[in-house]
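Is this the right way to post structure tokens for a design question? Let me know if I should format differently. Anyway, here goes:
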């Protein structure tokens, strides 16, 4: 870029290499962005709700993912358009903060942009539309707070949590087992939750999976599941009242850190060297025995010599255990992680009631189950499924349910699903829009209309007549002043979501409104797009 002057002394800027770039300005730029957002939304819209369809995505490596989780679909799609990437980031933000509602937030944002397009055609300025959306969002949030219900639950009476998790799981591939899986998720969250501080650390809940069984075989392990086996096949398969030593030092002789050379020219010297090595191993094993440990868990491997000695000293061992698993084990068993054999002592041992090795089918796959730990601050949900894709999708579904349980522990307010909350907010915004004098009222009405995309999509995906269903329920909401009426997606015979036990977390729904409005405002403010020209 350079500055030049014409013959009258007026300055102008020369932008170099502009022939290699394409440029779109003004309303055309805004409309182009809206079209990109609508294209992304069309992919996700059919995945919304309990009857939503799944998507099959194949990566460049040939890996196949089958899912209806919005964040996963957008993450696996190779979106090149910059506005499409904004919607991918939007879905990720919802996933990281709330964990659920990733499909709905993208569908809602795209619907807001689609309704803004009609106002742009009428000549409204994009910023005035965005201001109308901001005002409508505030009205919607106030309405959500008004219709939100408080859920009282305790560790002894977790049923409200279970019902909310069942709503989350009903739209997933695991819907037929949603009751059992929801109970597992709630039990896991309550095990690691600090109810007084209203805090849940989901890192303490480990999701493990193994293909080859039925979904009904999934279980909650009150402890840790290691994808390992005992280092020697002749070691006992079940240990009770176990004292556990966790080591991060290798079972092998020390290696000098200098260049060295050993000349062995006789059998006696070789025997002496071998005896020295044996002594190192014997000392290590003896230190473990002296500490009172019944099980050695080592972060590193050890060779056959050490393995043989450990087996002969009746000291079961597990090798190559990862760092994350070691930390979880230390938390659950109360053990201290020991970096050197010299530091191993009785007070650094952990405890578990049972350590057992379990096998699966005819594949010779084995895993270690460590149960009865004194600190139940670490639990494992063990998922079974017919194949790897089912197991992975089940783990993603359970992660969403765990996030919903965590959100309810933090804030125990819920709103009712089935599009009931969106329709109630839509009616509230339309009522307020009639009292607004400025141009923003058009933006508010567009926001109210855009909210109907959620119940419309739910009805369409459930095989109902979308416009008829939404119009009927919305009219009943207005006539009966009942904000709990939604779309009957599962043919339960009632539109009252309280009777159907369809709940969503209040903070999740509020976050959806906030994020969708912010992204929409950001996209409407873009009026100039300069990109490299592929054909230059």
């Amino acid at each position: 870029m350079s500055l030049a002057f014409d013959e009258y002394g007026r300055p102008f800027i020369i932008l170099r290499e502009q022939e290699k770039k394409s440029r779109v300005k003004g309303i055309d730029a805004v409309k182009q962005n809206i079209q990109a957002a609508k294209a992304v939304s069309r992919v996700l819209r059919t995945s919304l709700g309990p009857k939503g369809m799944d998507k099959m995505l194949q990566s460049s490596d040939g890996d196949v993912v089958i899912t209806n989780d919005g964040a996963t679909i957008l993450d696996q799609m190779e979106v090149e358009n910059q506005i499409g990437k904004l919607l991918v980031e939007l879905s990720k933000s919802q996933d990281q903060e709330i964990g659920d509602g990733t499909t709905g937030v993208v569908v809602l944002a795209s619907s807001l942009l689609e309704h803004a397009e009609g106002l742009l055609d009428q000549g409204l300025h994009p910023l005035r539309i965005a201001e109308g959306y901001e005002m409508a969002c505030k009205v919607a949030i106030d309405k959500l707070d008004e219709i939100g219900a408080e859920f009282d639950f305790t560790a002894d009476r977790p049923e409200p949590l279970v019902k909310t998790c069942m709503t989350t799981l009903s739209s997933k591939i695991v819907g037929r087992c949603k009751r059992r899986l929801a109970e597992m998720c709630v039990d896991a969250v309550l095990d690691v939750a600090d109810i007084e501080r209203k805090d849940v650390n989901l890192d303490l809940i480990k999701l493990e999976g193994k293909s080859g069984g039925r979904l009904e075989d999934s279980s909650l392990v009150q402890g840790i599941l290691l994808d390992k086996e005992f280092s020697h096949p002749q070691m006992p398969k079940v240990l009770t009242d176990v004292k556990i030593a966790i080591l991060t030092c290798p079972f092998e002789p020390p290696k000098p850190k200098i260049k060295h050379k050993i000349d062995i020219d006789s059998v006696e010297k070789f025997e002496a060297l071998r005896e020295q090595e044996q002594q190192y191993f014997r000392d290590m094993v003896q230190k473990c025995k002296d500490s009172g440990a019944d099980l050695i868990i080592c972060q590193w491997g050890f060779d056959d010599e050490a393995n043989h000695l450990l087996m002969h000293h009746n000291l079961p061992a597990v090798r190559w255990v990862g760092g994350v698993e070691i930390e979880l084990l230390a938390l659950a068993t109360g053990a201290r992680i020991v970096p050197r054999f010299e530091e191993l002592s009785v007070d650094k041992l952990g405890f578990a009631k049972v350590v057992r090795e379990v096998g699966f089918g005819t594949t010779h796959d084995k895993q270690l189950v460590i149960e009865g730990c004194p600190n139940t601050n670490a639990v494992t949900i063990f998922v079974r499924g017919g194949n790897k894709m089912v197991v992975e999708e089940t783990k993603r579904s359970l992660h969403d349910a765990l996030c919903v349980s965590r959100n309810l522990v933090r804030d125990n307010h819920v709103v009712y699903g089935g599009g009931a909350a969106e329709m109630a907010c839509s009616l509230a915004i339309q009522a307020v829009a009639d009292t607004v004098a400025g141009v923003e009222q058009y933006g508010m009405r567009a926001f109210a209309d855009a909210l109907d995309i959620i119940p419309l999509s739910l009805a369409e995906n459930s095989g109902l007549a979308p416009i008829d269903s939404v119009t009927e329920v919305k009219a009943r909401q207005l006539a009966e002043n009942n904000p709990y009426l939604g779309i009957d997606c599962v043919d339960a015979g009632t539109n009252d979501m309280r009777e159907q036990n369809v709940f969503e977390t209040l903070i999740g729904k509020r976050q959806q409104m906030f994020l969708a409005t912010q992204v929409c405002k950001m996209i409407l403010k873009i009026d100039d797009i300069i990109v490299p020209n592929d054909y230059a």
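Format looks fine. Someone answered above. Worth noting: The longest strand covers residues 350-360. The longest helix spans residues 267-290.
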